[in-house]
Design goal:
There is one protein chain. With 170 residues, this protein is an all-alpha fold. The protein folds into two domains: 76 residues, no CATH class; 63 residues. The protein is built from seven helices and no strands. Helix 1 packs across helix 3 and helix 4 runs antiparallel to helix 6. The longest helix is centred in the middle third of the chain and has 46 residues.
């Protein structure tokens, strides 16, 4: 069995490696800037695809090379501890769950209705991008408001054998 090294790697490798790692995973944030630029449509398509699917993975490999195995394992453990500490709790109150469900369904309803009324209401045509981005952000936030148990329910949608055990009301 391999012994896990828990000591902190040297800062001269940890800081640059962490910066490369973070920049890689933040690269999709730059997609709207590329779309709004004056570049050719073909170049925009390629660059947008790379920012979404190629660059994050490439930067993770580069970060692993800079950090080395012990440094990468340390960074991974550190990020998992942060996610556990600040991530959604497993069980949430009934009120929070209800608010989370409302927050979840508002963007879904907007996405269903918007294409049909898009060309008929000038307000929507002027602010379509802002409405779409706001809806996406609300959808993501709702998943954190709903809590960890909801993540398990959501994951169960993709497992064919998954079953829900409903509590018995007394």
């Amino acid at each position: 069995m391999e012994k896990i090294d828990r000591k902190k790697p040297p800062k001269n490798r940890l800081i640059p490696g962490a910066i490369i790692f973070i920049i890689g995973f933040l690269s999709p944030v730059f997609i709207p800037l590329v779309i709004a630029s004056n570049l050719s449509a073909g170049f925009k398509s390629v660059l947008t695809g790379l920012l979404a699917f190629g660059i994050p993975e490439l930067f993770m490999i580069i970060a692993a090379g800079v950090l080395g195995k012990p440094g990468f394992n340390y960074l991974k453990r550190f990020l998992l501890v942060l996610l556990k500490r600040y991530g959604p709790p497993d069980i949430v109150s009934k009120t929070r769950y209800t608010i989370g469900l409302i927050m979840l369904f508002i963007p879904i309803l907007i996405a269903l209705i918007l294409p049909y009324i898009f060309s008929h209401i000038t307000f929507i045509t002027e602010y379509y991008l802002i409405i779409s981005i706001s809806s996406d952000i609300l959808l993501i936030i709702s998943l954190f408001v709903l809590g960890g148990d909801f993540w398990d329910k959501l994951r169960g949608l993709f497992i064919r054998e998954a079953r829900i055990n409903l509590p018995v009301n007394n």
